[in-house]
Every structure is written in C-alpha cells, then in structure tokens.
C-alpha cells in the first residue's frame, strides 16, 4: 500500500463543484485583484480567527514582513524568534533589516519556551515573533506576559495553525498584536497558489497594512508610504471562502488521525507530541521523535509510506545564517523528528498501515 504525505488533488475532488463555480464566478465578474471576494474573505476570516480585522496579502512571508514593517521594526533592531521553525520566520526579520535572535523551544511541545526569552532580550529588542509550530498553539499567555513586561509587541506566525485553539479561543486576535497566516496549498487552509493574510485587533496597524500591501496607496496613484505589491487574488479568495467553510470539519479529520496515532503508538519507542491541557492543535503535522529517525524513515519508505522531516536543517545551520550559533535543542529536534502522514483525506486503512510499520521498528 502506498501512503502519500498529502493528497491535494483529493481535497480538490471533494469540493470540485463548489470550487469550480466559485472560480467561474470570479472569471465572469471581470474583477481579478482586490475586489469583493477578497473583502468578503477578509471579513469571514477575521470572524473565524476572532480578530477585529483581516488584511489579505500575497503569501505568508509577506504577511510576517508587512507586520514587522507596520510595527516600524527597523535595521539594527532585534526580534526574538524560535530556534525551531521554518526559515521564513527568520527571513521576515532579516528582510526588514533587523536581526533574528533565536530562543530555544520546549523539547516536549517544540514551541518557544517563555522561560528562556528574558535572557535574550536587550535594549534593541523590537518584538517577539513566536510560531504556532506544527499546528500547536504556543504558550500564548506565558509569552504575552513576557512581551507585556518588556513593552514589546508579540507577533504570531500562524502559518501552520488555522483552526487551532488556545484555552478554547481562536488564535488571530489579542494578546498577539498581529498574526500572520499563509494559504500555501499544503497548509490546513490552502489556496490553489500563493496567498496570505494578517489578522489583528489593532485598527491602526490594520490601516497601515492596507496601505503597505498596495504600493502605499489608499487612493489610486497617491503613495503615502513606500509600499509593496502583495495582494490576495480574487480567485484565491473565492477558493478560500469555500474551503474556510470546511476547515473545522477537515481539522476534525486530522484530529481523528492524530488521536489514532496517539493511542496506537503510545506503547512504542517513538516519542509522541506533548499536548498541553490548554491546547487544541490544528494538527498541521504529526511530528514524532526517535533516536533512530533515519532508520524509521527508511522503514516507512520501504513500506510505501511517505514520511517527511520538518525540517532537515534549522535556520541557524542554513548558509543564509551561517553564524555558528550553538542551539543544541534545535539541533537535536532536527536530528530526531519525523512527520507521519496526516490530513483530511487519509484513509483509516492507510493509518493502520503507518501504525503497523512504526510498531515493527520495536519488534
Ligand atoms: C509556510 C510557512 C510560512 C511562509 O508562508 P508562505 O505562504 O509560503 O510564504 C511562514 N512560517 C511558517 C511557520 C510556515 O509554515
């Protein structure tokens, strides 16, 4: 049996009729950039994430970069980032000319450890940028408290966490000053191309971001700020409006897969993800850890199961950041993690197959 890591075409097939008609509607309308679909999606996604405002942008990296620009983070300043994240989190900081200052995660949740942030703060710290990694909310109250005590804004990278809950509440609004979202096709809420958004309760920041995403203009041909072109397309917004209606249902299917792995792999030697009592993950990824990670991956591949590593190389080991930092927890995570297939279109028999292969490792 072959088990693919994700099946994006299956996601399309399930909703084909609705998606085709949403796309056709945009094509017929004659309006393709920043129009009624984007506006409607912005309202619906703001409501979904519990935030006052949503601003659609071109992709997740732009969402992060524009938030930092909107908060006036500049060259020479520092931004606290997790050592364990996708490199885009760091890139956003570098792209505004600031310096990413990594802080190590908790080895159980893989998310930023609030207790380690204080030692990394300096007079130049302009923001804390934390990531709801693998779909698991970070310790929102713990990190927000550190941000508040030190008078810096908390920015969240929610690119992997659409639909995750923290103490029963959605992640888009306060206490984070702003949350960045990506709608890259593989994300829990994915478009058929690139897309992104910012959600925030801060009206002023929302206004600045609306300018920045569109050449710095409020009125056509009048530039108030040096902006960029980072807009969400009408077609992608129309697709996202359809898929948003299925997000909770599809996340529910992800959770059912996660629950099976958590039960059926509990007695094996792989280390399962730790879920704090206040977290309801969106299960973007199901990440296990093993000292025999590479052997486990080979075993799964030999059995037809595609398992991936998120990520093979931490940001501080990338040539782009070749600065020789010592971040042993991030290094260990990157050497030991393996992501098992999870998604709304994974069959029960496919989960059985993955479980039996992982169990064989111990036998
Ligand atoms: C996907 C992702 C991004 C970047 O999103 P793009 O839309 O691909 O630019 C940023 N941060 C994290 C954690 C991501 O997973």
Task: Describe this protein with a few key phrases.
single chain, alpha/beta, seven-stranded mixed sheet, two-stranded antiparallel ribbon, 38% helix
What does this protein structure show overall?
The protein is α/β, with parallel strands linked by helices and 363 residues long. Helix content is 38%, strand content 13%. The protein contains eleven helices and eleven strands. The chain has a seven-stranded mixed β-sheet with strand order 1-8-7-5-4-2-3, sandwiched between helices. Strands 6-9 form a two-stranded antiparallel sheet. Strand 4 (125-131), helix 5 and strand 5 form a beta-alpha-beta unit. The longest helix is centred in the first third of the chain and has 22 residues, at 8-29. It is globular, with a radius of gyration of 20 Å. Pyridoxal-5'-phosphate is lined by residues 59-61, 85-86, 88-89, 131, 157, 159-160, 182, 184, 194, 196.
């Amino acid at each position: 049996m072959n088990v693919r890591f994700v099946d994006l075409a299956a996601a399309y097939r399930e909703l084909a009729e609705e998606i085709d008609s949403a796309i056709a509607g945009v094509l017929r309308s004659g309006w393709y950039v920043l129009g009624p679909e984007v506006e409607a999606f912005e309202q619906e996604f703001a409501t979904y994430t519990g935030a006052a405002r949503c601003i659609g942008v071109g992709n997740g990296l732009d969402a992060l970069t524009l938030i930092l620009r909107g908060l006036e983070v500049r060259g020479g300043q520092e931004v606290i980032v997790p050592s364990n994240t996708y490199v885009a989190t760091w890139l956003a900081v570098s792209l505004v000319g600031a310096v990413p200052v990594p802080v190590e995660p908790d080895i159980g949740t893989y998310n930023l450890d609030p207790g380690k942030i204080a030692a990394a703060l300096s007079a130049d710290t302009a923001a804390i940028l934390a990531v709801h990694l693998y779909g698991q909310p970070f310790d929102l109250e713990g990190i927000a408290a550190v941000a508040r005590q030190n008078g810096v804004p908390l920015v969240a990278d929610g690119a992997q966490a659409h639909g995750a809950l923290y103490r029963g509440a959605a992640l888009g609004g306060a206490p984070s000053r702003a949350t960045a979202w990506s709608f890259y096709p593989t994300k829990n809420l994915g478009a058929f191309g690139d897309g992104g958004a910012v959600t925030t309760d801060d009206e002023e920041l929302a206004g600045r971001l609306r300018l920045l995403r569109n050449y710095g203009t409020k009125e056509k041909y009048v530039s108030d700020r040096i902006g960029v072109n980072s807009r969400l397309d009408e077609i992608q917004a129309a697709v996202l409006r359809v898929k948003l209606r299925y997000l909770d249902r599809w996340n529910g299917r992800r959770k059912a897969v996660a629950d099976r792995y958590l039960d059926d792999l509990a007695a094996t030697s792989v280390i399962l993800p730790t879920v704090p009592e206040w977290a309801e993950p969106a299960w973007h990824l199901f990440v296990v850890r093993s000292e025999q990670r590479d052997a486990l991956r080979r075993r799964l591949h030999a059995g037809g199961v595609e398992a991936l590593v998120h990520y093979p190389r931490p940001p501080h080991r990338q040539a782009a950041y070749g600065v020789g930092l010592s971040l042993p927890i991030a290094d260990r995570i990157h050497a030991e993690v393996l992501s098992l297939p999870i998604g709304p279109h994974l069959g029960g028999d496919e989960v059985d197959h993955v479980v039996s292969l992982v169990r064989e490792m111990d036998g």
